[in-house]
Amino acid sequence: MEEINPMELLRSNLYRVRIPEPTNRIYKQECCLSFDSPRSEGGLFVDMNTFLAFGKGYVVWNYEKTGNPVYLHIKQTKKLVPEDRPSKKPTLLAIGIDGGFDNNEPEYEETHSIVILPNYVALPFPSVELPEKVRLAVDAILMAEGAERKEQVAAWTADKKQISAYAMELRQIGSVVVPPSGWKCTKCDKTENLWLNLTDGMILCGRRNWDGTGGNNHAIEHYKETGYPLAVKLGTITADLEAADVFSYPEDDSVVDPLLAQHLAYFGIDFSSLQKTEMTTAERELDQNTNFDWNRIQESGQEVEPIYGPGYTGLVNLGNSCYMAATMQVVFSTHSFCRRYYMNQSLKMAFETAPADPTVDLNMQLTKLGHGLLSGKYSVPASEKDGTAAPVITDAKQEGLPPRMFKALIAASHPEFSTMRQQDALEYFLHFLDQVERSNAVKPELDPSRSFKFGVEERILCSSGKVAYNKRLDYILSLNIPLHEATNKEELEAFHKIKAEKISEGKDVSSDEIVRPRVPLEACLASFAAPEEIPEFYSTALKAKTTAIKTAGLTSFPDYLVLHMRKFVMEAGWVPKKLDVYIDVPDIIDISHMRSKGIQPGEELLPESAPGSEVESSQPVANEEIVAQLVSMGFNQLHCQKAAINTLNTGVEEAMNWLLSHMDDPDIDAPICHGAQGAEASVDQSKVDTLISFGFQEEIARMALKASGGDIEKATDWIFNNPNTSASSDMDTTTSSGSVPTPVDAGLPDGGGRYRLFGIVSHIGTSTQCGHYVAHILKDGRWVIFNDNKVGASINPPKDMGYLYFFERIAS
């Protein structure tokens, strides 16, 4: 057989080569099916027709599926770097830009060639002998910014400071003269982190950090007492006034004061003679990121033994993505997700069933992530950053997986998760499970998210003696923390006395002196099931408002039970506060007593509202106290009334949560519709027809639109979240209508109530939108810490400091 000339072979396939346009997404940093990159042993192959990238072991699958034979091969080889290369000190909170962090990343030399499949015939690039179309296509691919980069904000730079609205008209009072040095807080002995109030010249210490360091909050307390808005941090004032750290309390941000020189001169400060001695807020943030010390809550600073192998693969932090890393490590430690996306589905199987672009297919990307985490292929020590290939085995840091495609895909339907900001791990977990359920809607029996789902039943006892039952489905059990149930009350009282004495003396309480409340998990579970009063409940039996008693229980027990500890509460003025508390969590719990018993013999259900009854009396009425409190916070009166009604007047916090999650509802400004006839009339027939065209039954479409206020997208969500709803069933409220509704938890996994703790997601920081998340998982009989791309044997897992607890049901 005559051998074909490589150049002739390329020319015969030119019709398969495309020159990318500006709108094309070009992948050239990561394989679509694996975590191979140009630095991998086989390099990366970019399809010159679709611009998708594939690793050496996967490119033939793409050739077999698409028939595209021409690929740009990209290979990066590490350069040798001198051992004495100096490290640059960062001046910006950024990565990958001038002035940002210098990670001592090794430099790589990149080579290119044209490869023609199936025989991997290679032609060198660059070469003038290559056809012009190929040369133009390769140049465009290499010059384009990769799709992976476009979807990842590369730098962590703070927003540009704005001019304060309070600067130009700032009133200055008093006759204080501030000395050029020797400053001390007016209210305590602090000599660092001092702020000069630009209204009255008071020098006060800054805020106390989450870890106990910093000031004593005297500067912000002074603002709360006086309302004086601006303060400048002493020690940051130099001849370069733009670099001074000015903070606006009412704007809650670092700001620019254009008249700072004038405002300082009022207190006798000659800024040209001052030397910088303190870090600005941005520099302190930078310093904290450079020298982050998690030892206060994680592993007590002890050396962690690194672990490698299948199931022990770290995830690279893509920039505040630890909430995703911690959550996904626990999720892929469950049998349900392991079976669905690893054991029962190969990468090739997922690719063959994926659409033309596998980067937008959740099934493909979950299979890619599952194989990456569980195969052990990428669980290798991080290479030293000095240009050699010798692995570092002195800590638990790995090369790890950078889950860029997965992050971008999950974030596509939730804009907050596409940012580089920290997010709430709980919110991410719920959004992730929702996406998984949708992707498995065609074959719900394959849906691994069902292993987390369970039914909740609320029993409402009216003062008439009659009852109503409301049912819903949930993925997590969210628990209040009853601080009054603390088991160390005597120690707490003694600590508060010592703390008060030290504060009165202007002294700090050391971290080893702090005593935190210890609340048993059993008390948190008991608070969930405890009876709760519902004031202003409208009784259809009494045809009047009354006080009802609500209790809750579970109608099914999931394979995996997730407990969410409500550590973030609202203080006076609706200021969020994190509870500094320990939860004593046993390794094994039994929630059998929490199973709902359903309608009991002799119980009489509350009647449905009679068709002929008055319109006003057939609907619940908003509790005026709840409405008044919400209105005082600046919310619209109508919105507040709807929030109270839709939460059955349970309380301000519940109404507030409803309001915040329904602000964008299309009917939020529509008048409150009374009566069944009005509800029927509110259903737009064209929207019903749209849902019918999706394949849903007409009656179910009407029910969904009624339940979602006429919004098609929310109606679709309602149908997916109530898969067992039948056309003959009403919503999810059991009253004496005579019909027997299909149980909302039909088909869900169920079993005994004994569970074993196997996963903990811990959080450190003042709110869920900042700080850091770490996962601890029980694997092969020992606890393992997953801290981004660090994986090691846990010495002291923080069982009492979790934010999310994951339990696995013990087989009876």
TrEMBL record:
Its EC number is 3.4.19.12. Residues 725-744 have a biased composition (Low complexity). It is an enzyme of class 3 (hydrolase). The active site is at residues 322, 772. Residues 313-810 form the USP domain. Zn(2+) binds at residues 185, 188, 205, 218. Residues 723-746 are annotated as: Disordered. Residues 158-271 form the UBP-type domain. GO terms for molecular function: cysteine-type deubiquitinase activity; zinc ion binding. Belongs to the peptidase C19 family. This is Ubiquitin carboxyl-terminal hydrolase. The lineage of its organism: Eukaryota, Viridiplantae, Streptophyta, Embryophyta, Tracheophyta. The gene is LOC110419198.
